[in-house]
Design goal:
Blueprint: H1 21-31, H2 33-50, H3 52-55
């Protein structure tokens, strides 16, 4: 077997940088602000639906008006 060494004059190859999620969201907001606004509205609706038991922990049909 022959041992070869790396060429010191060759350009270094680096891995391509991955975009972060935050950077992708900010890019979307800059390119399409209306879509970003409605995305935030949809996220808030989902958040309210998930936290509904915490906001109103009592059954809606069992009322006690005393």
């Amino acid at each position: 077997m022959t041992v070869t060494s790396a060429d010191p004059n060759a350009p270094a190859q680096t891995a391509p940088r991955r975009r972060s999620i935050l950077r992708g969201v900010l890019t979307l907001a800059r390119r399409s602000p209306i879509s970003a606004f409605w995305g935030v509205v949809a996220a808030l609706i989902v958040l309210m639906a998930v936290s509904a038991d915490f906001v109103a922990p009592y059954p809606p049909l069992k009322s006690d008006f005393r």
